[in-house]
């Protein structure tokens, strides 16, 4: 039997999309019928988590198949790196990037592709000035929106810049996710009969600011006449009145619905053109965000005076990961399959290469694991025993990089979250299987579990070239796990 031609690959990324806002999972936060339908015909990894946080580090892990956070911070894509689009191009693929994630433009993520199309103007991206029109504030209480570190005066904030740049936007078809879907659908119509292709479609939605159409907002919050909560404050949720926090959550849900609708247009075209017969489609998100859970909003701490990392609870660390496998790959059909294994972004590159029948060169030094053996039922073991989530950043307290700041580790059953100075509190330990919302800290009762997970975390960081300073800073003694106490392991 002749081998089938290599499959096309479509990767759809939605920034900041929380898995618990896909209505197919029964949480009821948002209506997402198009993505629900996609999930029902796909394989979904329920315990997918971000490794290198946030936006650009996560995508670097995806593009290179390597663990970045122990080695470098948020930075431009290394021109010398061996990347997923670069390797596919070497094997006859046409590689196209379509995105409005402005950080990818600035960080040169377009360079490994044959072609790229960027939609400008999301968040604080300002492609053209309008000096004759003053920038008007959207939210009057600066405690309730994100104010960049150092902006201690009255300079415009991100939601002001977004509204000013996109001042003509009124209708749904002018929303960024709609325009990005337009460009993607046109591209598919122009290319569905040619060479095999990689289409990387990167929606910055559902990332804030949130300016949904009025009709949709009224669907999620019928009665609200207050100031629009279009951008969380990346701080304490205590500053919001209950109805304001509800407005913030409603706006986020609106954007989940819009991304579903317009990503759904792309997915429908994949079916209508017949591409579904030989096209691998992946839907991902890069991280989540707090919407009042744990007393926080936003995904990290940012205000006029400081920046730092929030604790990596599941609302931030869990990501969407569903894959629709075409029949041409010869993998037994697994509609609506739910996989409990710990998978992370470095696994994306080796998995796609494996499905495309491409062996990466040894010099790529890929550290992620192909998920194909799991998909084929050849193994029950997941790619890793522990999933670590962390960030490398410069806090306001340090001019130097702080590698692997406040990491979290989970084995699927238990989750350990480290807290570092200036927070004097000990680590947090949750039995995630029984307490997925992380409501009860069990460190006092199960310190041995915390020590076990901590050891696995350090082993992982050490194996991926964490600096001696990092390992010392996160040692058992430094994080408050040196003394055995409690009732022992559960």
Q: Biggest sheet: strands, sense, closure?
A: 8 strands, mixed
Strand line-up in the sheet with most strands: 5-4-6-1-8-13-2-14
Give the C-level CATH assignment of the largest domain.
Alpha Beta
Provide the helix percentage. Answer: 25-40%
Describe the model.
28% of the residues lie in helices and 16% in strands. It has 490 residues and is α/β, with parallel strands linked by helices. The protein has 2 domains: 368 residues, 3-Layer(aba) Sandwich (Alkaline Phosphatase, subunit A), CATH 3.40.720.10; 93 residues, Arylsulfatase, C-terminal domain. The protein has an 8-stranded mixed sheet, with helices on both faces. Strands 3-15-16-17-18 form a 5-stranded mixed sheet. A 3-stranded antiparallel sheet has the order 7-10-9. Helix 1 packs across helix 8 and helix 6 packs parallel to helix 8.
List descriptors.
490 residues; alpha/beta; Alkaline Phosphatase, subunit A; Arylsulfatase, C-terminal domain; eight-stranded mixed β-sheet; five-stranded mixed β-sheet; 14 helices; 16% strand; disordered C terminus
Quick recap:
With 490 residues, the chain is of the alpha/beta class.
Could you give the topology of this structure?
Layout: E1 8-14, H1 33-40, E2 43-45, E3 52-53, H2 55-64, H3 84-90, E4 94-99, H4 102-106, E5 115-118, H5 158-165, H6 176-191, E6 197-203, H7 214-220, E7 235-236, H8 242-272, E8 279-285, E9 290-291, E10 296-298, E11 301-302, E12 307-308, H9 314-317, E13 321-324, E14 337-339, H10 348-355, H11 372-375, E15 387-393, E16 402-410, E17 414-417, E18 428-431, H12 447-463, H13 468-473, H14 476-479
Helix pairs in contact: 1-8, 6-8
